[in-house]
Design goal:
Layout: E1 26-29, E2 36-39, E3 48-56, E4 64-66, E5 73-77, E6 83-92, E7 97-104, E8 118-126, E9 128-130, E10 148-156, E11 175-176, E12 200-201
Parallel strand pairs: 1-10
Antiparallel strand pairs: 2-3, 3-7, 4-9, 5-6, 5-8, 6-7, 8-10, 11-12
Length: about 220
């Protein structure tokens, strides 16, 4: 069999950047990420797709700041240096948080190696610029380049029981009551009897989808 394996036009492969190996001006870590925040990633990654949130931290107290329109790249690797498929979803929250995923596959596709259990890495890189009168000047060779990296540890346990990742059920925010005539939740708002959908409220708390019934015939 040829190496590397023949690629398929119908499959999506994990790009390999080796972000954990590039030369950078400034290095962060999970205890002091400085510029990036990762939330929602499971402590242990089993087979399957796992979602998480990636956002940018306030850098007012830092000596540097992310360049405007800086690209932000991230890459997952297992302990045996296999790149794990990951990407940003198409869901747009418009709140500065990107919904991303990592997909632990039985067949990583680009290599004959299997993803090995153990401690891997999530590497995130971006491009920094100087703040006026703050910090050491970024050398010329790091200017306008991916010059900052933060590495977060991850743990892979492929056959972990009950390790399914939560799924995104909707891509917009709505305020609705629960279905049914009664609710036992504290301070709940019930819906009309025999309603097939919950009552929807606008931002002022006014119901917007209550059906209008005609007057009873005399």
């Amino acid at each position: 069999m040829a190496y590397p394996p023949e690629f398929s036009s119908t499959l999506t492969y994990a790009n390999r950047y080796d972000l954990d190996e590039i030369d950078v001006f400034l290095e962060g870590d999970s205890s002091n990420p400085m510029f990036f925040s990762v939330n929602g990633l499971p402590k242990q990654l089993a087979f399957g797709k796992h979602y998480f949130n990636l956002s940018i931290l306030d850098s007012k107290k830092q000596d540097y700041e992310l360049r405007p329109n800086s690209r932000i790249l991230f890459e997952f690797k297992s302990i045996n240096n296999v790149v794990i498929k990951s990407d940003v979803t198409e869901l747009k929250q418009k709140n500065g948080v990107a919904i991303c995923f990592v997909d632990v596959l039985q067949d990583p596709l680009r290599t004959y190696k299997e993803i090995q259990d153990g401690q891997g890495t999530l590497s995130i890189v971006g491009s920094l610029q100087n703040k006026q009168g703050r910090g050491k000047t970024i050398p010329d060779k790091f200017q306008n380049a991916m010059n900052y990296r933060c590495i977060f540890p991850i743990e892979i346990r492929k056959n972990l029981i009950n390790a399914d990742s939560p799924k995104t059920l909707q891509s917009k925010h709505e305020i609705k009551t629960s279905l049914g005539e009664f609710s036992f939740a504290k301070n709940s708002v019930t819906t009309r009897k025999n309603s097939v959908t919950g009552t929807t409220y606008n931002v002022k708390g006014v119901a917007t989808n209550i059906p209008i019934k005609g007057k009873a015939k005399s």
